[in-house]
Amino acid sequence: MSDRNGKRPVVVVLDPPSDDDESGNRIVAGGVAGDSAPNSSRRKIGAAGTVFLILNKMIGTGIFSTPSGIFAATGSVGITLSMWAVAGLLTLSGLSVFLEFGLAIPRSGGEKNYLERVYRRPLYLASSVFAVQIVLLGFSASNSLAFGRYVLLATGHPMPDGWIPRTIAVCCATTVVLLHGVLPKWGLGLTNALGVFKVLVLLLIVFSGFAALAGHRMVPDPHNFDDFWAIEKGDGYGVGGAYAYATAMLQVVYSYKGWENANYVLGELKNPQRTLKVAGPLAVISVTILYTLANVAYFAAIPKGELAKSEVIVAGLFFRNMFGDSALARSLPALVALSNIGNVLAVSFAHSRVNQELGREGILPWSRFWASTKPFNTPAASLFLHWIVTVTVLVAPPPGPAYNFIVNLYTYPNAWMNGFVAAGLIYLRFNKSEKWTSPFQTYLPVAGIYLLLNIFLVLAPFVPPSGGWSADGYPYYAYPLVGLGILFLGVAYWFFWTRTGNHLATKLDVGTNGERRSDDGKSFEDERPLLQEAEESLVGRGNGARHGYTRIDG
């Protein structure tokens, strides 16, 4: 067999599956296709650790910042609280879909592996679109911007979004990247410490909310629960319409992001079948309860008009109304700021590793550079890529309320990805020729509900909002159009990538600089489509099982 340009004939010899391949999924020489099911010595994360892994990613700026925009869109206390509770149930439905995929394909990488399993043709189209989406939208901009706003609030200088909070946000992102790149142990330790801290801050809000319900607050009772289900229109809230509800749900979904975090490191979980089944639902149910109670706390202490206009600093306004304009009340927003920077640390750490792996697999241009671990034996180059995207998103929007736009832009393309994952699972279950099996099977109606939710989230933002063609100072179609543009950019990148440099390597190893290369020293950047083609031409489909292989020059 020779490649399509007639360069070097290659023989692909199938090897039997190793003992570590617990579910028949492929183990690729040199790690070409990402992490395989690793041996037991690499499995270090138990059930408790997995719960905190998910909690640390889920609890970020969202619950401290998005409730304002969500209530402004709905104009109803009851509908707003219902959205938070229903979003928790929908998150559980998404978790159920990811459980079935993750336990059938126990490799790190999350939806990248699942999309590759279902959408095998055209070759590597799914991988390319995912790579572009995760690189361009895997930023820490919203968390950094919230940090800037809360720092100003804590220092007694609250101000709307503008260049001053954005400058603080850029400094925050830069500091985090330098910390992870130069002092990785310090960065990881601070991430873990602030992860616990975030939970404590959220519990403080919840218990303060109970006190507010009992009448212990520094402001009069806002009576927000008197007309619980009434849809009101006031100054800055009660927008209504399909667009408003879709935007509100996107912001709720953003606040729940992180529930799939364990699937990204599935190869490092102890007994993944048991661990994921226990840790995933436990973490999501806990967060759903905390989020719903936190919103009850906000409504118990903040009048509707103030809540709708508070934008990012909802939690800061809550502390002021609970504890007055005292030094203590002003210092409490600093706790939220620390929580925000904790999320920046967690997101930067995770996405830099994803960028590095995409470089190692040859999917990104200049892969050798992005895969590099020099000079501090850290993914410094991938952190730099994450920093470039984060800073660009922070400075590109014009002055104005950029937070909601950034949140929606971050979440919208992901709804497309999750929709394709859900549709793919339904296809596998109905198509018997795929021979799909998994230790866990979700109920198909659950997968169908999750699919319908994501269809709503990707279509409704194109319905013009009532009362005008703008939202938060931007054209209403701005974030869905930009999000779609990023997905189509992934298609364009795939078209270019698969048509340049089609040589095959004879052997792969990991270079001293962190990149994966062939035995003749060439960087493995453009070989994966042909390897995939050779692999799939020789191996059956069953569960995506493709055993190891050896390539020999003919």
From TrEMBL:
One of its GO terms (cellular component) is membrane. It is a multi-pass membrane protein. It comes from the Eukaryota. The keyword Transmembrane helix applies. The chain crosses the membrane at residues 45-64, 70-103, 123-143, 163-183, 195-216, 236-257, 278-301, 327-350, 376-397, 409-430, 442-464, 476-497. Its main location: membrane. It is found in: Membrane. Keywords: Membrane, Transmembrane, Transmembrane helix. InterPro entries: AA/rel_permease1, AminoAcid_Transporter. Residues 1-25 are annotated as: Disordered. One of its GO terms (molecular function) is L-amino acid transmembrane transporter activity. Gene3D superfamilies: Amino acid/polyamine transporter I (1.20.1740.10). PANTHER family: AMINO ACID TRANSPORTER, LOW-AFFINITY METHIONINE PERMEASE. This is Amino acid permease-domain-containing protein. It comes from Dichotomopilus funicola. The lineage of its organism: Eukaryota, Fungi, Dikarya, Ascomycota, Pezizomycotina.
